[in-house]
């Protein structure tokens, strides 16, 4: 029986783990470039961490905000690599604000009379900001999917002929 395919999966997993750890080490570096493979490996790792932390009762409120902040640096570097402005990362602000307002609504709901009204209003604001955050997040994901400008496969044809040589070619 041939087990080479298992060796390939183990090698691939080690490479994925190395990519994730490399980006995690520099998650608060905002300048430079980050290729698509490393960025999406990091994004996938943060998604898995978010799913795991969402199962823990107290941490599930704070974890999305912390993981979102940890994604700012790599996203800025990915946008730079894709030839976009790194400031487009602020498209994620409505989603982050929705998380913070949702956290505030949860805390305010424990106040007896006034807390219910304020929590309802802040919950509505969190829902509206969450919708706007989803739209902005989709736009940001699309920008992060663009190919790197350094590895652009489109080539332009540059002619080095003089106008006289071009006339002879056309004639």
Per-chain topology:
Blueprint: H1 4-25, H2 36-53, H3 59-70, H4 72-81, H5 93-108, H6 114-145, H7 163-170
Helix pairs in contact: 1-2, 2-3, 3-5, 5-6
Structure report:
It is a single chain. The chain is mostly helical and about 170 residues long. Helices cover about 70% and strands about 0% of the residues. It has helices at about 5-25, 35-55, 60-70, 70-80, 95-110, 115-145, 165-170. Helix 1 (about 5-25) packs across helix 2, helix 2 packs antiparallel against helix 3 (about 60-70) and helix 5 (about 95-110) runs antiparallel to helix 6. The longest helix is centred in the last third of the chain and has 32 residues, at about 115-145. The chain is flat and about 85 Å long. Mean pLDDT is about 80; it is low at about 150-160.
Write a concise keyword list for the protein shown above.
mainly alpha; single chain; 7 helices; flat; 171 residues
Biggest sheet architecture? none
Mean pLDDT: 79
Beta content comes to under 5%
- Which bin fits the share of residues in helices? 55-70%
Point out poorly predicted stretches.
152-160
State the order of secondary-structure elements, H for helix, E for strand: HHHHHHH
Structural class: mainly alpha
Radius of gyration computed on alpha carbons: 24 Å
Secondary structure: number of strands: 0
Distance between the termini: 67 Å
**Helical run tally:** 7
Shape: flat
């Amino acid at each position: 029986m041939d087990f080479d395919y298992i060796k390939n999966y183990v090698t691939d997993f080690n490479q994925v783990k190395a990519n994730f750890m490399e980006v995690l080490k520099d998650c608060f570096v905002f300048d430079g470039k980050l290729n698509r493979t490393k960025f999406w490996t990091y994004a996938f790792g943060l998604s898995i961490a978010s799913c795991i932390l969402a199962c823990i009762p107290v941490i599930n409120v704070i974890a999305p905000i912390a993981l979102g902040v940890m994604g700012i640096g790599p996203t800025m570097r990915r946008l730079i690599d894709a030839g976009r402005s790194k400031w487009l990362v602020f498209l994620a602000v409505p989603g982050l604000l929705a998380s913070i307002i949702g956290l505030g609504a949860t805390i305010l709901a424990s106040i007896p009379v006034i807390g219910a009204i304020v929590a309802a209003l802040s919950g509505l604001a969190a829902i509206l900001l969450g919708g706007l955050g989803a739209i902005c997040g989709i736009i940001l994901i699309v920008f992060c999917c663009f190919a790197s400008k350094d590895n652009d496969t489109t080539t332009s044809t540059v002619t080095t002929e003089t106008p006289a040589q071009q006339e002879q070619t056309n004639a």
